[in-house]
Automatic annotation (TrEMBL), chains A, B:
Species per Swiss-Prot/TrEMBL record: Camellia sinensis
Keywords, alphabetical: Membrane, Transmembrane, Transmembrane helix, Transport
Stretch forming the signal peptide: none
Subcellular localization(s) per the UniProt record: Membrane
Transmembrane stretches, start-end: 124-141, 153-176, 182-201, 208-227, 233-254, 261-282, 323-343, 355-373, 385-407, 412-431, 451-475
Annotated InterPro entries: S04_transporter_CS, SLC26A/SulP_dom, SLC26A/SulP_fam, STAS_dom, STAS_dom_sf
A Pfam match: STAS
Lineage of the species this protein comes from: Eukaryota, Viridiplantae, Streptophyta, Embryophyta, Tracheophyta
UniProt-recorded name of the protein: Sulfate transporter 3.2
Domain STAS: 503-626
GO MF annotation, one: secondary active sulfate transmembrane transporter activity
Length: 650, 650
């Protein structure tokens, strides 16, 4: 430790205090604009600023000028591929939401066009999503029976889509995108897996050809409902369903093993629909217990602004449904967009995406579409089919438009059981057991979060699972915050580095000095804990030294390197710690307090209380000074102060 | 930086993985038993363990054997002093809670005795508290009118006291004491100040002798109620009230300025009651619009177990009231206990205190007492009167017992207006504007929290203020957690220390190397933010270097010293950061990752991905290695790997 170089000791100074408004401005900026969206506007002429501003809010203006024919070819192929998936998925998920199948097709026409203008992802394929569809069915179904009052039910679904969009756009405009971050990855894995399980269970209705079915979504009710109706099972439907399910999972399995089979997997849902419809048409199975879609209206989305039921007695329900489904749809869509952006190494702006999602849902709710987002399956197909830009969404919308205008009658004979198979096949991919195993291996707590939200969804309901997931995630934040780590540091031999003696067993404790590192900002949520913990460290150290009869404890050095900030509760705890240490006849020394902390310690006179000369830049300097004192004089407050000054003046 | 000593470079190793159960055990222990209550039981014979265990749960067994006659003398003086305060305060706060005055006296008899057995504070004087009384009145008053249905109202108050006690004891047994820590100091200052303001406003009813008064507690309603009733004001009552208020504030003012006046202040409430009662008795003012307490039943607390209304339709209300008032009472009591323990330098165990509070309220609810806690005013008087142990509570209870048995008729003529004055005088002390000014000076955000909860209480209601305070406090935790600091490090000249260049302007950036320090654990709540922020730091650095035409950026060193832990979301963000840095043609280097982090990085194969040779113990070593590479060869992945190995083998 002879390295302590006291001639030119760099003092830890109190940084000049910034005016209140400028520090408020900078902290607000860091909170709400961490991505600094205005950086590209700096030092630009006003005309250029206008162009950049337009491009910022309508990203298509940014990339359209650079669009090439090669891109277009790739996008057409990808767009047609996702359209073959969009049509059956659209119909399937709409039936999952208890909505007329045609609304699922409408929802693949307008929203993708809006997203193509406003979205910043190049890969996201817009469409309806299973989990949100299920949530709509379960939340609105509690209030209005979709079979007895279909018109009102559709109105409520459109209204809640409107609120979902409004909420999403508002979050984006207020730059509160980080709220979505609070649904951790583990939560989403568990929640999605649970929802996929529940959706699969619901499809047993279609596969077994049951007419009556429970409205509850939990495992117990569904199994009860199925077992009590064994005499109602339709074997024709069941056999058909199992065959198609087998076919679909087989193609998925092969496409995963060999990239050449990708197209087979991408086309499989459409093929199933065509095959199923042909089979029913030829065998007239619809007369033998195989339910079919039936008549679908021809024509594009009818306007539905007048259908939005703002005056309805169920307004609160639609708002609640809108907010919850909106957040879920956002979380899924943004997570999917981000994952694919990561592959191609471009950047997605969460807040801009929220505005795009919100706009597309508001526009959708006025044109007979229900909630849309970026489903994983469709986006993955888009990515694998070689989609380059959001133009693939436009191509998909065009293909859906053609379907709506001319091809709807072809779906008359499509058996519902095929739709169920398509949904199950898609859902099986969402049960990400490998991710769960990975969580177990890497982080047990994350695994607990994941499995709790899974079980909450499967045995409770989608809402219960969501609440459990959010509560556990928040609880985790709270525990993270309330129980920060502290550790004892020791000297790594032959260096002036001090590290945790737990992590580096060869690090040596310094006789007579206890060096503690605090690993978190100190504030109200953990201040009391830290006080107890520090006093326990000192107790432990004193007990140990007492029994070993070596040199007694004289100094406590707090390494503040990791204390990024402190609040008034934290400061009063520091004061208490100092008083406690003084009473024991020891001396408190601080090492490397950060600027934010120094500022507040100064304002609250703590620096005066402890003495500027007891604050060091590094642990090594602090230890050097303490050692000097230990070996030259017995530390009592007066003598120590003088000798430090001497030390500094040497 | 020639100090890099590559011969004996201490490697950052992955710590041996602990079995799951033992790491779960240690983290549960750290979360729920940070004070390690079992440490004194270690290495003790079984008989001693039993004694220690009893002493742990019933602290009186611990200190009673050491009790001396000197202590007793001091405690008798202090006990009688607080009894003179307890009697008028008990009556006053009971009327504040719309309960019969006698219940206030009962509440100063049983609970102090229970606390004396179980409590770990030597200074806390037990009694009813103003804020909780007000809360009971406002929450129960919404359901049952205390004037129309006094019996039911008393039953509900006792039942909610029972639930408050049950909740408090449960929190203690489950060692969830840290929940109280989430009410930050700033929140409590604002909330208490607001509640005190509201209580003062309520007393205007008594001072002005009004009979009808609003049930709302907010400033606007109260002022409206007073202004519309100007013709109902009773000047006799008003004059009396103002005189006593003046007297009481005067004694308080003098006692603060000179310690010798302490006794005058302590006795002032009792003196006021005696003086007021005499005045009314002599002038028969009760016939001229001055309301008096009237008949008080003689005798000790009647048992009230049968009064607890568990079967009532208002059960939910009593549970809710119990939980909320219980938490508030706890927060106040524990804060008060801790403050005084700090003065005398002994330790208070939060969880044990909760059990003591819970037990005393459960016992209280069975003996006609309503919610009690440790009020600041009474405890301060106890402390200043020289109370040494909880025996002063026993003395107080004895004095109250004597009052109940023999002296209650003396209160017949006590005017209500004197009680109002006593309450107002006590409340004025709770409006801690000096603390608010201190908050403003030291931490603006804390000030905002404080003032919002104040305004919430004063202009909304006590519950609204509480909700605002809790929400803002939680929001603060969320923002703290979601927006950690990052900073660029530079070399402090003539040392191998690297520090933030914002804090130490003379620190020099190292050419070609960007050193970033992350100041928080990385996990789901801040992972996305950190990814954006790191990529922005790199953008900024590249822009800067591009314009200056110096050596380009080649290495990014992440100083992980302050990253105490990481979860799976954090790891995937690190992977993304690495991929992003790789794409830019740069190299990611880690410095000083902690053991927890190393463990998880290892399990998730991140260490393999980055290469063990790119992880250094200190920033200085990392910089040394990068510099070596920069000046010996152009960094491309292959060449760099080899040269590092050479570097290590030299």
């Amino acid at each position: 430790m002879g390295n302590l170089d006291s001639e030119c000791r760099q003092k830890v100074t109190v940084p000049p205090s910034k005016p209140f408004l400028s520090s408020l401005k900078s902290s607000l900026k860091e909170t709400f604009f961490p991505d600094d969206p205005l950086r590209q506007f700096k030092n630009q002429p006003p005309g250029r600023k206008l162009v950049l501003g337009l491009q910022y809010f309508v990203p298509i203006l940014e990339w359209a000028p650079r669009y090439t024919f090669d891109f277009f070819k790739a996008d057409v192929v990808a767009g047609i591929t996702i359209a073959t998936l969009a049509v059956p998925q659209g119909i399937s998920y709409a039936t999952l939401a208890n909505l007329p199948p045609i609304i699922g097709l409408y929802s693949s026409f307008v929203p993708p066009l809006v997203y193509a203008m406003l979205g910043s992802s190049k890969d996201l394929a817009v469409g309806t999503v299973a989990v949100a569809s299920l949530l709509i069915a379960s939340m609105l179904g509690k209030e209005v029976n979709p079979n007895q009052n279909p018109k009102l039910y559709v109105q409520l679904a459109l209204t809640s889509t409107f609120f979902a969009g409004l909420f999403q756009a508002t979050l984006g405009f207020l730059r509160l995108g980080f709220i979505v971050d609070f649904l951790s990855h583990a939560t989403i894995v568990g929640f999605m897996g649970g929802a996929a399980t529940v959706v699969c269970l619901q499809q047993l209705k279609g596969i077994l050809g049951l007419v009556h079915f429970t409205h509850a979504t939990d495992l117990v009710s569904v199994m009860q409902s199925i077992i009590t109706q064994t005499h109602q099972w339709r074997w024709e439907s069941g056999v058909l369903g199992c065959c198609f399910l087998f076919l679909l999972t087989l193609t998925r399995y092969f496409s995963k093993r060999r990239a050449a089979f990708f197209w087979i997997n991408a086309m499989a849902p459409l093929m199933s629909i065509i095959l199923g419809s042909l089979l029913v048409y030829l065998t007239h199975a619809e007369k033998h217990g195989v339910q079919v879609i039936g008549y679908l209206k021809k024509g594009l989305n009818p306007p539905s602004l007048s259908e939005l039921a703002f005056g309805s007695e169920y307004l609160m329900t639609t708002i609640k449904t809108g907010i919850i489904t909106g957040v879920i749809a956002l979380a899924e869509g943004i997570a999917v967009g981000r994952s694919f952006a990561m592959f191609k190494n471009y950047h997605i702006d969460g807040n801009k995406e929220m505005i795009a999602f919100g706009m597309m849902n508001i526009a959708g709710s006025c044109t007979s579409c229900y909630l849309t987002s970026g489903p994983f399956s469709r986006t993955a197909v888009n990515f694998n089919a070689g989609g380059k830009t959001a133009v693939s969404n436009i191509v998909m919308a065009t293909a859906v438009m053609i379907t709506l205008l001319f091809l709807t009658p072809l779906f008359y004979y499509t058996p519902l059981v095929v739709l169920s198979s398509i949904i199950i096949a898609a859902m099986l991919g969402l049960i990400d057991y490998e991710a769960a195993i990975h969580l177990w291996k890497v982080d047990k707590f994350d695994f607990v979060v994941c499995i709790s939200s899974y079980l909450g969804v499967v045995f409770g309901s989608v809402e219960i699972g969501l609440v459990i997931a959010v509560v556990i995630s928040l609880l985790r934040v709270v525990i993270f915050v309330a129980r920060p780590r502290t550790c004892v540091l020791g000297n790594i031999p032959k260096t002036i580095t001090y590290r945790s003696i737990d992590q580096y067993p060869l690090a040596n404790r310094v006789a007579g000095i206890l060096i503690l590192q605090i690993d978190a900002p100190i504030y109200f949520a953990n201040a009391n804990y830290l006080r107890e913990r520090i006093s326990r460290w000192i107790d432990d150290e004193e007990d140990k030294l007492k029994s070993s009869e070596k040199i007694g404890l004289q100094y406590v050095i707090l390494d503040m390197s990791a204390v990024g900030s402190i609040d008034t509760s934290g400061i009063s705890v520091l004061e208490e710690v100092k008083r406690n240490i003084d009473t024991r006849g020891l001396k408190l020394v601080l090492a490397n307090p950060r600027s934010e902390v120094m500022k507040k310690l100064d304002k609250s006179k703590f620096i005066e209380a402890i003495g500027q000369e007891w604050i060091y830049l590094t642990v090594a300097e602090a230890v050097g000074a303490c050692n000097f004192m230990l070996h030259s004089c017995k530390p009592n407050s007066k003598a120590v102060d003088e000798s430090t000054e001497n030390d500094n003046n040497v």
